[in-house]
Amino acid sequence: MTNKEKNSRFEDGYKLAFNTPGKVNWKTVFAHWYPAAMAGHTRAQFYIGTCYDLGRGISRDITIAFNWYLKAAEKGHMESAYNIGFYFDKGEVVAQNYKTAFRWYKYAAALGDMEAQRSMGYFYFYGHGVRKNHKKAVFWYKKAARQGLAGAMYNLALCYKQGDGVIQSNRWAKFYFEKAAHTGHKAAISALKK
């Protein structure tokens, strides 16, 4: 399959999945993406992984999903790299391994994935797979918060409230609680009521 054919198959499936009004026929979408994924199209591999992960157009199988995500992650696909980190973090399909999870999160975070950046903060904060370092946790929470991730804003607020990795500041804690609450983050809303 030529690159043009791979791209065409992927784009046709993408249009059916995300740019067509009405109910999505995931079996048809899957049928477009699968040959492109088999031929090495990175985004198609990610979306085939997603189809298996969520049971869209095919029976749900998280082991097969993992394998497709891994193919795409090894080619530099950001969301796939985050997903592989998540599998190792939670011990789904593979044995839980914080060091391996950390490595994949770091890779995805460097590519700009805000969830991976928040996970980096969490791993540094609690010492999962890496030496505990609250300053580095704050660094990663700030990167994710700048992208608008409410969970990172909340975590950052907690760091300011307790003085973990930063100089304790009720003003900055309130600032980040309010930013997170503005997005509907329930724990941040609750923290502001106290």
Written description of the protein model:
This protein is an all-alpha fold and 194 residues long. It contains eleven helices and no strands. It has helices spanning 3-18, 26-38, 42-54, 62-73, 78-90, 98-110, 114-126, 134-146, 150-162, 170-182, 186-193. α3 packs antiparallel against α4 and α7 packs antiparallel against α8. The longest helix is centred in the N-terminal third of the chain and has 16 residues, at 3-18. The N and C termini lie far apart (60 Å). 42% of the residues are buried.
List the helices and strands in order: HHHHHHHHHHH
Q: Helical content, roughly? A: over 70%
- Outline type: elongated
End-to-end distance: 60 Å
The gist of it:
This protein is an all-alpha fold and 194 residues long. The protein is 72% helix and 0% strand.
What attributes does this structure have?
194 residues; mainly alpha; 11 helices; 72% helix; elongated
Write the layout of secondary structure elements.
Layout: H1 3-18, H2 26-38, H3 42-54, H4 62-73, H5 78-90, H6 98-110, H7 114-126, H8 134-146, H9 150-162, H10 170-182, H11 186-193
Helix pairs in contact: 1-2, 2-3, 3-4, 4-5, 5-6, 6-7, 7-8, 8-9, 9-10, 10-11
